[in-house]
TrEMBL record:
Coiled coil: none
Domain N-acetyltransferase: start-end pairs: 13-152
Xref: Pfam families: Acetyltransf_3 (PF13302)
Protein name: GNAT family protein
Entries under InterPro entries matching the protein: Acyl_CoA_acyltransferase, GNAT_dom
Length: 207
């Protein structure tokens, strides 16, 4: 399975595949809110860190291993975060949705819910995935709750799964959604977006 960048459009957000010319915008947004990187397992302290991460993402994208997106408001085009789809198993096939960050002003809105709906729809309905994974730091309780709200099933923990930016070992919590569950998950997400509650969801799902 080769992941080909494509723009995913919703009513509130547009997920635009990463490109070199977005670097200045991403740097400004990413460095404007240091706290969103609290649980991300790599350093995002300065412009050099951001550029390094973005260039790695662009390299993976060029090889068809991932699609990294800038999350933009559909109404204004403002960049308010980012997220990605990464290949896990080309034969199954399965992908991981992760690396999600949203600037504070747009947390607890419908931005992340719709972004996840767009990514999951792309994974199951365009890519033909049988399984989509989501992971987060065991300490990130807000992220775990948010993943469960969008329909992820908690499978368990991955011990000493990766090293955090500070050098400590991170345990990760693994969630998944299966193709057989997708219709019900999609219906629930659409209902949440249509309701008043959909505008006030806790949305930070930083992996």
């Amino acid at each position: 399975m080769h992941l080909t960048p494509s723009t995913l459009r919703g009513e509130a957000v547009v997920l635009q595949p990463l490109s070199e010319d977005q670097l200045p915008e991403i740097k400004r947004a990413a460095l404007s809110a240091p706290d969103v990187w609290r649980f991300i397992p790599y350093s995002m302290r300065d412009a050099a860190d951001v550029e390094k991460v973005i260039r790695l993402a662009l390299a993976m994208q060029s090889r068809g291993e991932a699609i990294s997106f800038g999350t933009r408001l559909a109404s204004t085009g403002e960049l308010v975060g980012g997220t990605s789809i990464r290949r896990v198993d080309a034969a199954l096939p399965s992908v991981e949705v992760g690396g999600t960050w949203i600037v504070p002003a747009w947390q607890r809105t419908r931005v992340n819910t719709e972004a996840k709906l767009l990514q999951l729809t792309h994974g199951f309905e365009q890519l033909g995935c049988q399984r989509i994974e989501l992971k987060t730091d065991v300490r990130n309780l807000r992220s775990q709750a948010a993943i469960q709200r969008i329909g992820g099933t908690r499978e368990g923990g991955l011990r000493s799964h990766m090293r955090r930016a500070d050098g400590s070992l991170r345990d990760s919590v693994l969630f998944s959604i299966l193709a057989s569950e997708w219709a019900a998950v999609k219906e629930r997400l659409l209902a949440r977006l249509a309701s008043a509650e959909g505008a006030t969801l806790a949305v930070r799902v930083a992996g």
